[in-house]
Structures are given as structure tokens and as C-alpha cells.
Amino acid sequence: MTASLTAYNIVITLQNQGETSPYLNAFARFGADNIGKKIIRWLPASWQLKIMAMFFVPGMSAHFVARKKLVREQAEKAIAGGIEQVVVVGAGFDTLALTLSAYYPDCRFIEMDLPSTQQQKQKALQLAGITQQKNVIFHPCDLSRSNFLEELKKIPSLSNQQPVLFIFEGVLMYVPEAAVAETFRQIATLHKDTLVLFGAMAQHDSECSFLQRVLPWLVNTVGEVIYWVCPSAQMPEFLAKSGLVLREQWKYKALQKSTDPKTPEEDENYFLVAIET
Ligand SMILES: C[S@@+](CC[C@H](N)C(=O)[O-])C[C@H]1O[C@@H](n2cnc3c(N)ncnc32)[C@H](O)[C@@H]1O
Q1: What is the CATH number of the domain that holds 262?
Q2: Which of 7, 81, 106, 231 could cross-link 202 (Cys pair, CB 3.0–4.6 Å)?
Q3: Long-range Cβ pairs for the range 101-106 (8 Å, 24+)
Q4: Which residues of the chain are modeled with pLDDT < 70?
Q5: Can you give the residue range of the structural domain that contains 86?
Q6: Per-residue pLDDT, 273
Q7: What pLDDT digit, counting tens, does each position of 86-105 carry?
Q8: N-term to C-term CA, the chain
Q9: CA of residue 71 relative to chain centroid, distance
Q10: pLDDT of the residue at 204
Q11: Is 170 near ligand 1, meaning CB less than 6 Å away?
Q12: 113 C-alpha vs ligand 1 centroid, how far in Å?
């Protein structure tokens, strides 16, 4: 199985909108392990962004930039509030842990992802000659098949006596609802000050226009199937079943501060949640 196509597409979309860092450059250059990714990489920037605009939910390219900014702000806020353990699940080619680890040497950053994606990321770092900080740990994990708590216990530097910030950015839609609920239930048994920041799709792509279904359908056929969706109105009820409570939410359109009438109010919304006490 090859590493995540969607994770690679995010790297290129960010670059094509002017985002840059040694990590992004390394992943763009060395992360393309199949023909799909190579095509994405070699498309002129304006074409790639046009394809995103035509075939994905309107505003998706801007969404990637907006949510990266949000996640970084929230992570830094949590660290300023005393959190010293950040677990990024389904990290893909995300640069947050790698970047913040240099600024916050006392904080431990753990990346969890499918083994194939994680291996590709580590290989890209190696090929680019980048050595990651000692406070970044990679731990492979398939959320759909693993017992999340058992996986956390295998990470020696992670303490269950201290709170954690868990980040699930652009990943929970690929996990069946029962596994998402179980993961949340297990998180709710951890330290009471633990926080979870996650994105959830509000609806299935099948409810979008025909054009906007073509590319997601192709992505589904290469193994990235959308399982879990939850509109924001139903999120408090979903969370309550797992012992979590909503602190803050950012809807798709508001997150990007978009005034484009084509951008839907809801698509991949973001939520910050805490353990119910
Ligand atoms: C759309 S990418 C998002 C990557 C990154 N979080 C970001 O936002 O830039 C989806 C990520 O979820 C990971 N993923 C998909 N299914 C997973 C599962 N069952 N368990 C863990 N990670 C998974 C993929 O390997 C990939 O890294």
C-alpha cells in the first residue's frame, strides 16, 4: 500500500498558495511514491489550484491554509496553558510537530499515522538530510484497527499522569464511526485536562454536485474511503456519548473568513473538546 495521496495533495496545495518551509519542500520533493502524486507535483500551480476549485468542495484549498493556522494557534495556546504532550494523529506530511518541537524543547510531540504514510514521511526527511528534534517521536497506528489506549501505552515518553493535546486534523473522516467513538471514549479516561482538536466532515461527498464527486470518488478507489461524517449540530450529542464536551467550534466557511457565496457554511468543521467533569 502506498502512503496517503490526500496527505501529499495537501503539501502541494499549501506550496501552491505560497506556504513554504524546509519540511514542506522536503515532503513535496521526496514524498511522491506513486504516479498520482508525481502528477500532482508536476502540475503547474495554477492548474492544480484550478482542479481543486473545480472538483472539490468550494474553498478547500483555502481551507487547508486556514486550518493549519488554526491548529498551530490552538497548539501554542495549549502549550502556553501548561500542556507538555502533543499527539498528532493521522499526521500525514504535516509540519506542526517538526516545527514546534524546536520552539518548545520541553514539550513532547508524538506523531501517529498509518505505517505506510509514516515511513514515507521519515524517508523524505532522511533523503532531504533533515534530522528531527529529539522531542518528536513517530509511532505507527491504524485507528480503525488498534486499541488507541494500548497504542498510547507503547509510547515510553508519553505520561498518563499529565494532560495531552490530541490533534486529529483531516483524518477522522477515514475512520468508521464506531472506532471514532471508541477512541474518544478512551481519551475521556485520560488526565482531566486533556484536550482534543479535530476536524469532522459535515456530510458525505455524495451530497455534493456531480463534478465535486469525481475526484473524491477516485481517491476512494485508491483506498481513502470516507466513513465518518457528523454535522456540527449533532456534534455535542456525539461527544456526550463518549464523555467529551464541546469547548469551541469553527465552521468551514467562517474558518476561512470566506465571502464567496459558493463556499458552503459547513464542510470540514473543526472542534476543540475537553473531558466532561
Ligand atoms: C488528508 S491526510 C491529512 C494529513 C494531515 N493531518 C494534514 O492535515 O495535513 C489523511 C491522513 O490520515 C491518515 N489516516 C488515514 N486513515 C487512518 C487510520 N485508520 N489511522 C491512522 N491514520 C489514518 C493518512 O495516512 C494521512 O496521513
Answers
A1: 3.40.50.150
A2: 231
A3: 101/132, 101/133, 101/135, 101/136, 102/133, 104/79, 104/135, 105/133, 105/135, 106/135
A4: 1-3, 205-223
A5: 5-275
A6: 98
A7: 999 999 999 999 999 999 99
A8: 41
A9: 9
A10: 80
A11: yes
A12: 6
Contact 276, 240 (CB under 8 A): yes
What residue owns the CA closest to ligand 1's atom 13?
90
Number of domains in the chain: 1
Please name the amino acid found at residue 177.
E
Using CB atoms within 10 Å of the CB of residue 249, give its burial: 0 to 12 exposed, 13 to 18 middle, 19+ buried: middle
Taking only the tens place, the pLDDT of each residue in 186-206 is 999 999 999 999 999 998 866
Question: 21, 167, 171: which to mutate for ligand 1, most atoms within 8 A of CB?
Answer: 171
> What angle, rounded to 10 degrees, do the helices at 5-16 and 35-42 form?
10
The preferred substitution site among 86, 87, 174, 220 for testing ligand 1, maximizing ligand atoms within 8 Å of CB, is 174
Set of cell numbers at residue 275: 473531558
**Distance of alpha carbon 111 from alpha carbon 87, whole angstroms:** 6
Is the model's pTM score more than 0.70?
yes
**Ligand 1 center to residue 223 CA distance, Å?**
12
Of 53, 74, 23, the closest CA to residue 199 belongs to 74
The set of cell numbers assigned to 21 is 518551509
